[in-house]
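#lab-general

N.A. 3:47 PM
ok so I finally got the sequence cleaned up, no stray characters, all 187 residues accounted for. can someone with queue access submit it? mine expired

B.Y. 3:52 PM
send it over

N.A. 3:53 PM
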Amino acid sequence: MARKLIYVDASSKRDSEHSIYKIALYDKVRDKGIVLRLKQQIPKNITEAEKFAIMYAVIYIIQRGNENYHILSDNQSAVDDAKIQKIVQHYRIGLSWIPREANLIADDLSRKNIKKKKSKNVNLLYFFMDMIKGHFEFIPENDDEKIKKIEELSRELDDIKNRMNNQKRHLAALQKKLSERGSESIK
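B.Y. 4:20 PM
back already:
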């Protein structure tokens, strides 16, 4: 079976204060293009915007059942990024660099003017990009390390739940005192 190709690209345009980045995805099989305007100051440069485009393509592919897809990008640095490589390998998605001249449709899409349209996947995209930038830890490779990490996270979650329950009890006690004071002042 032939691989389904997804072309991605990013573009930037400077306004008076900031660079505005847009990312584009072109699904060749479905002949479908998607363009997203990213939040200001989120990507720091065009390579980071290209990584957003690749990750958006990963989300797009996962939602379609991950059926033998291959992502093509004209940004070598984004394609070679170790964390991006790890993610696409995990999902068994191909990723390759192509010359800019071979990426004309996605390039054209990324430069089009678009109306502000909120994608349901945009928050998920920002979450994944935080992971890639290292704001979150990746789950370790072997099972023993995974179990340790899960146990550690479980303890942290229990601690948070306990603190929340203590705060609820404290809040309930304060509310009770306030209602008692309120009923005393009425008498």
